[in-house]
Design brief:
Blueprint: H1 12-21, E1 25-28, H2 35-45, E2 51-55, H3 58-71, E3 80-84, E4 87-89, E5 96-100, H4 101-109, E6 117-121, H5 128-140, E7 143-148, H6 153-160, E8 165-166, E9 174-178, H7 187-200, E10 206-210, H8 214-228, E11 234-238, H9 244-250, E12 258-262, E13 275-280, E14 283-290, E15 295-302, H10 305-313, E16 321-325, H11 329-333, H12 349-362, H13 373-386, E17 389-390, E18 393-394, H14 396-402, H15 409-416, H16 426-437, H17 439-444, E19 449-450, H18 451-459, H19 466-483, H20 494-504, E20 509-512, E21 520-522, E22 528-530, E23 539-548, E24 555-564, H21 566-569, E25 577-583, E26 588-595, E27 598-602, H22 609-616, H23 619-630, H24 639-654, H25 665-676, H26 687-698, H27 703-709, E28 713-715, E29 721-728, E30 744-751, E31 762-764, E32 769-776, E33 782-786, H28 789-795, H29 797-807
Helix pairs in contact: 5-12, 7-8, 14-15, 16-18, 16-19, 25-26
Length: 818
C-alpha cells in the first residue's frame, strides 16, 4: 500500500487549496479514512521543516509511526519516527515525528520547538494537555492542523480562523444493533450473547470488545473462551501498561478469527487489522478529582455518543462491519453527546504551573475550557505556598521544578530544593519513581502497597513496572547532572525518607481514628480510611487513594502508603496541647492530642489519668460555646427549672436574714462550671443534673420551706386548686408589678366561678409578696387580671357577666357577687 491508496488521498486538491489560503488547517474525516497517516505525509511535502503529529496515547504514536514508515518503504526512525516517554525512534533525517501530547509538552517546557507544522490528532478527546498546548501554539507561531472524526466545529473555526474541511466518507457501511440488557444478566453474559450473534451471522474475523477496565477484560475473556471454546477464536487483551511484545501481537495480520478485549485505548488512532465486529459495553472507567475529599474518585460511567461513534467506526475501516451496542435505543437518547473536557475533572496545580511557565514567552494564555474557579484558586494558593508562583507568575523555584523529570508538584519540590546529593539517596529516588510512575500498577493491586518496601525491592533488583524503572534512571541522571559525579554518601535511611515525605505531603498524613480498631485512620479533612494489613502501623502517609463504589457501599481505599512510626510523627521538642472535637453522630466531645504536625484522637474513657485531666479542663469552655451555638439551653434550663430559680431568687431578696444565695451572674457561672466540668456526653446535659446542682447550691435543708413559702398551688374554698406562676419580668411599662418583688411577677390562675367566694388582695411569702389574680373564663382563657378581687366584683364583674352568660349558660352567673 502507498499513501496515494488511502481513501482520503482523493481529497488532496482541497487540502492544497486550504493550506494555500490559510495558515492553519481544520479537518473532519470519518474513522478509517487514513487521515492520521495521509495528512502528516501531505504536509511534509509542502514544508521544509518537521511535521510533529500529536497523539493521545503512546501505543497510537508508535503504531502509526511504524505503519507510516512502511508506506515510505523504510525502517522506522528515518523519514518517519516516534518519540514517547521511555522510548524513541528518530534521527536527524526524521521529517514526520509522532509524539504523545505529554511528551511534546515536556519538550516545550524545556525550551524545545522544532516544527513547521503541529498536527493535533483526535482533538475531540479534549485532554488537559491538548487544551494547554493548543492555547500556547496559537500564540507561539507554528502552523497548526487539528483533525478528528468529530469536532466542535464552531469553537475550532473561531479559534483557528478557518472553515472546517469535511474530507472523505465512511469506507464501508457499519450496521448498528442494540442489544437490550436482560434483567439480572452480568456484563460477561451480555458480551457472550453479542459474540454469539456476530459468530452466527458470520461477522467473525476480528472483533473488538470495549470494556471499562482490566478486571472486566479478564472476566469477559474467561467467560467468552469457556462459552465459545478455544477453537472458535484467538482471545487477546489490550490495555495500557502492557509490554510492547504483547501489544505488537494485536497488530499482526492473521486469518484466524480473533476477539480482542480492550479498554478505550483502541477507540482512536490505532488500526487493528481485519476488524469486522465491535461489541460496545457503553461504559468506561474515569478518574475524577473530588475537591471536598482531595482524592481521585474512580467512577464507572456511561460513555458519550462521540465515544460510541468512534468505537463503532473501528469495524468499517477495511470491510463491512457490525457494531452491537449493549444498551437500548431508548437509553441512547439519554447519553451525553460530547466528551467532557478533562480540564474540568483534574486537580490543576501541575497544569497551572506549566501554564505559568509557557506564559513567560507568550503572555497570558486563554484556555479553551476554564478550570473550575474554586479548584483553580486552591491550586494557586498551594503553588504560592510552595514558592513556585508569586501573584500568578512563575518563580525561579517554579522554573527549577518544571525542569525536573517529574510532574508531581511535591516530588518536583523535593528535587528542586535538594542542597546536595545526600538529600537524594537511592531509596528516596526509588520511592519518588514509584509515586510518579507506579500509579497504574498500584491501582490494579488488590492489596495496599508499602512504598518503603517497593522502593527497597526495586534497588535490590526486584521486579518493577518499566515506567518506574525508567523514571528511577531519569532521577539518578538528574542527581548526577545537578550535583556532578558525586554519589549520595548518605545511607538509604528509611527515617529520613519518611521525614521528607511527611514534609512534602502534609495533607496526606493519617493518624489513628478514635473508637476504632487498629488499621483505621483519619486524614486532616476528616475522611476515615482503612488499611487492611496484618500489623497496622501507628500512623500512615496515604499517597494514593481512590473512592470506589457508590452510596452506602462507597469506601476510600488506600493504594499506596508509608508506615509512620510514632517517634517520627511526634517531635518531642514541641509542646503537647489538647483540643476537644464534637462528634455529631455520637453526640459527644472527644479529645485531640496535638504535637507539631502530629494529631491523635483520644476517647476520654481510654485516656490516661493525666490526659483525662487535661481534657476535662477544656469541657466548660467547649460546652459554653456549643450550647450557645446550637441554642441548647432548653435541654437543662426547662420551664420547671427556671421557675425554681425565680423562687430561689425571691427567697434571697425577701428573706435577707437567711443569707441565701442570690443566684446572680457570678453564682450562675459557678453552677454552670460545676454542671459542665468533666462532661463529654450530651445526654449528661439534662434537667435532673442541673436541678440537683442548684438545689445543693441553695441548700437542700431549705427546700421544704421554699415550697411552702413560694407554693405551686393554692387550695380554693371549694377544694379545687389554683395554680401559681412565677415570671421573670425584664421590661414592664404597665405598673402592674410595682407591688411585686423586683423583676418578678407572680400570678394565681383560676376560673371565675371558683373565685367568687374570695375577696380583696392575695399574698404569699408571709404577706411579703403580692400576687396578681389571673381570672379565667370557663374555657380556661384569661378574661381579666387584677390585684384586687373586691374591686373586680364591684366595678367590672357586671360587664364580664353580660358577655359570658350568653356563651356559657350552664354556668352560675349571679347578678352580684358581693
Amino acid at each position: 500500500m502507498r499513501y496515494e491508496d488511502l481513501a482520503i488521498a482523493e481529497e488532496e486538491s482541497k487540502l492544497e487549496q486550504a493550506i494555500g489560503e490559510h495558515r492553519n488547517l481544520l479537518v473532519e474525516a470519518p474513522t478509517g479514512s487514513g487521515k492520521s497517516l495521509y495528512i502528516p505525509w501531505f504536509l511534509s511535502k509542502h514544508c521544509k521543516g518537521r511535521v510533529v503529529v500529536l497523539q493521545p496515547r503512546r501505543i497510537a504514536a508508535i503504531s502509526l509511526a511504524q505503519y507510516s514508515a512502511k508506506l515510505h518503504e523504510e525502517s522506522c526512525g528515518r523519514t518517519v519516527g516516534y518519540q514517547v516517554r521511555q522510548d524513541s525512534c528518530k534521527s536527524s533525517e526524521t521529517k514526520i515525528l509522532f509524539q504523545t501530547y505529554g511528551n511534546f509538552l515536556q519538550e516545550l517546557l524545556h525550551g524545545k520547538l522544532d516544527a513547521d507544522w503541529i498536527v493535533f490528532d483526535e482533538y475531540h478527546e479534549r485532554k488537559a494537555d491538548m487544551d494547554l498546548l493548543f492555547s500556547y501554539l496559537l500564540k507561539k507561531g507554528p502552523r497548526i492542523a487539528v483533525m478528528s472524526a468529530k469536532l466542535n466545529r464552531d469553537e475550532m473555526e473561531s479559534a483557528l480562523g478557518v472553515k472546517c474541511l469535511e474530507l472523505g466518507h465512511p469506507l464501508y457501511p457499519v450496521q448498528i444493533l442494540h442489544q437490550n440488557p436482560t434483567t439480572g444478566n452480568t456484563l460477561e453474559a451480555e458480551v457472550v450473547k453479542a459474540l454469539r450473534t456476530l459468530k452466527l451471522n458470520d461477522v467473525w474475523k476480528t472483533t473488538l470488545v470495549f470494556l471499562p477496565g482490566k478486571g472486566e477484560i479478564m472476566r469477559c475473556h474467561t467467560a467468552a473462551e469457556e462459552a465459545l471454546g478455544s477453537q472458535a477464536a484467538e482471545y487477546l487483551d489490550l490495555f495500557g501498561g502492557q509490554e510492547r511484545n504483547i501489544q505488537d501481537r494485536i497488530f499482526e495480520e492473521t486469518e484466524r478469527p480473533r476477539v480482542i478485549f480492550t479498554t478505550n485505548i483502541a477507540e482512536t488512532s490505532i488500526t487493528v487489522p481485519n476488524v469486522s465486529g465491535v461489541v460496545d459495553s457503553g461504559i468506561e472507567r474515569v478518574s475524577e478529582y473530588d475537591d471536598s475529599e482531595k482524592v481521585n474518585v474512580l467512577r464507572t460511567s456511561a460513555i458519550s455518543m462521540q465515544n460510541a461513534i468512534q468505537r463503532s467506526g473501528r469495524s468499517g475501516r477495511t470491510q463491512n462491519g457490525c457494531a452491537i451496542r449493549l444498551w437500548s435505543e431508548e437509553a441512547e437518547k439519554r447519553m451525553p453527546q460530547g466528551i467532557i473536557p478533562e480540564m474540568t475533572q483534574i486537580e490543576p496545580s501541575e497544569l497551572l504551573l506549566q501554564k505559568a511557565s509557557l506564559e513567560k514567552s507568550v503572555g497570558t494564555l486563554t484556555l479553551p475550557t476554564d478550570i473550575p474557579e474554586n479548584r483553580k484558586q486552591t491550586a494557586l494558593k498551594l503553588l504560592e505556598g510552595f514558592g513556585m508562583l508569586d501573584a500568578g507568575a512563575i518563580t525561579e523555584l517554579g522554573e527549577k521544578a518544571i525542569r525536573t523529570p517529574v510532574t508531581d508538584i511535591p516530588l518536583a519540590l523535593i528535587l528542586a530544593t535538594a542542597k546536595s546529593a545526600d538529600d537524594l539517596s537511592d531509596l528516596t529516588l526509588a520511592a519518588m519513581a514509584w509515586i510518579h510512575s507506579g500509579t497504574e500498577f498500584v491501582q490494579k493491586s488488590k492489596q495496599p502497597l508499602n512504598l518503603i518496601s517497593l522502593a527497597g525491592d526495586s534497588l535490590k533488583g526486584g521486579s518493577a513496572p518499566r515506567e518506574v524503572t525508567y523514571t528511577l534512571r531519569q532521577l539518578q541522571d538528574y542527581r548526577k547532572n545537578v550535583f556532578g559525579n558525586s554519589n549520595a554518601t548518605r545511607k538509604d535511611d528509611e527515617q529520613q525518607l519518611i521525614r521528607t515525605l511527611l514534609h512534602s505531603y502534609p495533607d496526606r498524613q493519617a493518624t489513628p481514628a478514635a473508637s476504632q480498631n487498629g488499621g483505621v485512620y483519619k486524614l486532616d479533612n476528616g475522611n476515615v480510611i482503612r488499611l487492611q494489613v496484618a500489623e497496622p502501623p501507628y500512623a500512615i502517609l496515604s499517597l494514593s487513594m481512590l473512592r470506589t463504589g457508590g452510596g452506602s457501599k462507597s469506601e476510600l481505599r488506600v493504594n499506596l502508603y508509608v508506615p509512620v512510626p510514632k517517634e517520627l510523627l511526634v517531635h518531642s521538642d514541641e509542646p503537647i496541647r489538647y483540643e476537644l472535637l464534637w462528634r455529631s453522630g455520637q453526640e459527644r466531645f472527644i479529645g485531640k492530642e496535638i504535637q507539631g504536625a502530629s494529631e491523635r484522637e483520644i476517647l476520654p474513657q481510654e485516656a490516661s489519668p493525666a490526659v483525662l485531666t487535661k481534657l476535662k479542663e477544656l469541657t466548660v469552655d467547649a460546652w459554653k460555646e456549643k450550647l450557645e451555638k446550637e441554642n441548647w439551653d432548653g435541654k437543662f434550663l426547662t420551664e420547671n427549672v427556671q421557675t425554681l430559680l425565680i423562687k430561689m431568687r425571691l427567697a434571697a431578696k425577701l428573706y435577707p436574714e437567711f443569707g441565701l444565695p442570690e443566684f446572680n451572674e457570678e453564682d450562675m457561672e459557678l453552677i454552670f462550671n460545676e454542671f459542665t466540668d468533666g462532661i463529654f456526653l450530651l445526654r449528661d446535659i439534662n434537667e435532673d443534673r442541673y436541678r440537683a446542682i442548684i438545689e445543693d447550691y441553695f441548700g437542700k435543708s431549705m427546700l421544704q420551706w421554699l415550697g411552702k413559702t413560694f407554693p405551686d398551688h393554692f387550695v380554693l374554698p371549694n377544694g379545687k386548686r389554683a395554680r401559681y406562676s412565677y415570671q421573670q419580668v425584664f421590661d414592664t411599662g404597665d405598673g402592674l408589678t410595682v407591688q411585686s418583688a423586683e423583676g418578678v411577677l407572680v400570678e394565681i390562675s383560676a376560673r371565675i366561678e371558683d373565685l367568687m367566694v374570695l375577696r380583696g388582695e392575695h399574698h404569699i411569702a408571709d404577706g411579703k409578696l403580692k400576687v396578681r389574680y389571673d381570672i379565667l373564663a370557663p374555657n380556661f382563657r384569661t378574661i381579666q387580671k387584677t390585684w384586687d378581687l373586691t374591686g373586680f366584683w364591684q366595678n367590672t364583674y357586671a360587664e364580664v357577666r353580660k358577655e359570658l352568660r350568653g356563651r356559657y349558660p350552664k354556668h352560675p352567673w349571679p347578678e352580684s357577687v358581693i
